[in-house]
Design goal:
This protein is mostly beta strands and 106 residues long. Helices cover 10% and strands 57% of the residues.
Length: 106
């Protein structure tokens, strides 16, 4: 049994996303959940832990869908029945993105 390593609450988020790791082409992804410190996405190919990049994802708030962009670091990548689950930690989160995620979390 594994211990929960997340430092903040997460909320389920099922939306389209794009993962763009530094020096690599964009990869289509689906979000799993999001929180103020990070998020999880599902991708077709594994991503190496420790890599840096950015994620673009759709978040519905203020009555409409919005595309958000955030710098991320890969904390882990594990195989699942639907692909690879990638844990992402936000780095230098923009105030507007942080505010949007906080609104979504309420």
């Amino acid at each position: 049994m594994s211990l929960e390593q997340r430092q903040s609450a997460r909320k389920i988020l099922r939306a389209k996303a794009m993962l763009i790791m530094d020096g690599a082409p964009p990869v289509a992804a689906r979000t799993i959940d999001v929180g103020t410190a990070g998020m999880s996405v599902l991708v077709a190919e594994p991503v190496q832990a420790g890599k840096q990049g950015k994620v673009l994802f759709e978040l519905f708030y203020d009555g409409k869908p919005n595309i958000l962009e955030a710098r991320v670091g890969v904390s882990h990548c594990i195989i699942s029945s639907a692909g690879f689950k990638v844990g992402l930690s936000f780095a230098r989160l923009d105030m507007a993105v942080s505010s949007a995620i906080s609104k979504f979390m309420r």
